[in-house]
Every structure is written in C-alpha cells, then in structure tokens.
Design a protein that fits this description.
Elements lengths: L21 H16 L6 H13 L1 H6 L4 H15 L18 H12 L8 H11 L5 E4 L5 E5 L6 E7 L4 E7 L5 E6 L10 E7 L2 E7 L9 H5 L8 E3 L5 H7 L5 E4 L4 E2 L4 E4 L2 H18 L6 E7 L8 H9 L3 E9 L8 H4 L9 E4 L5 H14 L4 E4 L8 H4 L7 E9 L7 E4 H17 L10
Length: 451
Amino acid sequence: MARDPSPGSLPGASETCYAVDKSDFRRRYSNAIRRPAEGQRFPAEFINFLVEIAGKNLNFWESSNLSSPVTATFRTYVLGRFRTIPADMTSHLEQELPMDSISLQFLKDLLHAPSPSGYERPVQDVVRRYASGFSKDIRTDWHGNVIVGVNPTGSPRIMLAGHCDQIGLLVKHIDDKGFLWVHAIGGWDPQVLLGQDVQVWTRNGPVAGVIARKPIHLQTPDDRKVVPEIKNLWVDIAVRDGVEARSLVSIGDPITVQLGFRELRNGLAAAPGMDNKVGAWTVISAAERVSRENPNAAVFAVSTVQEEIGLRGVQTSAHQIDPQLGIVVDVTHATDCPTIDENQFGRIKLGQGPVLYRGPNVNPVLFDQLIANAAQLSIPIQVNGLASAASNDAAQLQLTRGGVATGLVCIPNRYMHSPVEIVSLQDLDQAAELIAQFCLSVDSQSDYTPL
C-alpha cells in the first residue's frame, strides 16, 4: 500500500486513524517476515509501516488476529528500535518472551551446541551461520575465534567480545570396567555434578552417560560428611566393559551436562552454558543491529574461545583487530536469591537491565557514554563496582597493544557454573540494543582519553 506523509490523504482516514486494507497488510507482512529467516534485513519501509499502523489505529491492530510471530517481530523490530508505543496499547499485545522468534532460536541453537573450552567448533558453526545473514566479513582464526565485521574499514575500531566456551569435563582415563574418569575444564562445584545426565562428545557423535555416587543407603556416616572432588567422580556410559567403552569414547573427548533450554515464568530461561553463550549472543546481535544503520566506526563482534581456562581467545583476537575501543559482555552474579550477601557483591537482580561495571578495568569516559546512551533509550541499567582487574575477557582486552578503552556490560545470572543457570531474556535484548546504540554514537572524533 502506497503511503502519503499526510494521514488525512488516505481514503477514509482521519488525523488519528488510518484506513487500512487488512489483506494488503497481511500480504506485506507475509512477504517481509520471510526475510529474516533467510538471513536478510527486515525492510525499513515495512518497519515504519508497522509503527504508523500500530500507533494510529489500535482497533485495526487488535482486530487483525495477528499470529504470535507477528507480535514477536513487532516487539523486537519496532519496540527495540524506536522505543515508542502508546501506553494504552500494551494491553493489546500478547505476552511474549522479549525476543523475536529468530533471535530466540539463535540463542537456543547456541545453548544446544557443545562448547567446552578448546572444543568450541560446534557452537562457532552456529555463530558463523547466523552472522552470514548480515555480514560479509566473517573469519575464523587458527585459535578458533569467530570475528564478524560490520563496516570493517570505518574508524575507530570497536571490538565486542563475548566468549562462547562453557565449562565441561574431559575424559582422562577409561578403566577396565568401562567407567570414565575425568578432569574439569573450567571451575566446577563437584556437588552440582552428582546425579547429572551428561553427554560425551565423540568423533562419532554424543554418547549418553550419568554421574552418580554410592547410594545413601550404603554410605557410612563418614561417607556422608565427605565433600566430593572431581577426581572421585566417574561417568557411567552403560557399557559392559572397558573394551566396549574404548570402542565408543577416546581419551580427550569433552563432556557436558545435558544441554537444553527451558522457558520459565516472567521472561526468564534456564540452561547450562548461559555463561557465556548469552555474551556471544549479545555481541553478535548488537553487530546485527548496527548493520541495519550507517555506522562511522568499524565494529568487530567476536565470539571468543577459551575464556574459562585463562582468557585466551580474547588475547589472540584483539591482537589481530587492534581495536581502540572494546566492550566485553559476560555474565555476572545475580544476588536476588538466598544466601548471597548484597553488602559484598552488590544488589543485582534479574530482569532489571544489564549491569555496567565501574572500576580500574573500565574506561570512565566510555562508561559515562554507556550511561548516557541507556538514558537516551530508556533502557534500565544496574551499576556495580569492580576494584581490580575483571575475571573475564575485559582484563586482557584492556591491555592489548597500546591499551584499549574498555567497557564491561554484564548479564545477571543466577546459579553460575551450574546446570541450571537462569537469566532474563529481556536483559539480553536490552544489552544488545544498548551496545548497538553505543557503536552508532561513535565516530572518528570521539575521544576516550580519561582526562
């Protein structure tokens, strides 16, 4: 439907209401919605059309019987970009997870792909496939980092880093009974591993197993007092003997707990590996949003590897990119559950927005700009302090070459380094939007010297 700047010029329209042909609307929607599924950008003209129709004709919107994907698309592509909606319209929207279906599927695909440190290839395949829909500048270095460029010749160079690796286990020994003895990849609390379903990721596909211990009925009083250690845990893959086990599993195969994704109430979701696949999701999603506009800066979103074993991938990727500015996205501890002391760790809640860190690891000018961007977009943020170098990629990114003006944006996470990590999907979406707008606000005249 051709649109005129004057709403009154449309047949049957007034200053407050469009006369809209519903069949035309549905045709335009069905054509447009296919584009993101094929990795193309959602048409700006259609976004504007949605904004005008939704804002000026609530009766049409309410009576159109739009399907759930339409509502999700409206929320992400319209609310996420324009942040404008009449207050009385919220009752006409379905209650959806705060992501469109394509972005949510990207997150699910990341979480279903195994990625123990050093074994990130499956999850990086997901990253490359998704990023190919909006970037032609995608490369994978020999370390395994995936670097996605948007406007790669721009200035200055901004690096967005989110590590894709997760904690896991590694097969160290296969005994003659067929039980697997393991070493930890990253930092585990061994107690959370007891009773877990696991998968051994072999060259020929996953092998199911479990981690358990002697039943409580057979434990002595002293047994019950012992805190388990990784060296005392074994994986049972239900084989007859060591010969069968060795025909299925090799020394050095990685292991994860059972992967998956569970939608919870109030826009929350639980999964192993939220640390830090949500960070990889956020930086790639931010780069995608930047690609829809005309940035002055060069933006490189990096799905970094091997963070959990020493902040390794960020060092090699940053050396290649040589950024002037950098933002690291990782998870941080949500303190809104029992037994965590807010006096020591700050007041951080799920669903209250991304966390911006202050401290010696963060450039103060960049921090102030993120605060200003958040206020401009009406994005809620939480602030926390960090008195030393971060325990994540920000520590190494800041020290790259001659130094990088670094920001740290974190996603609140309950039960970190466990099989039941919980995050708010709204926090992810808001973090991606905030970072995208920061990147778009940077140009060659921007100065981050902390004077």
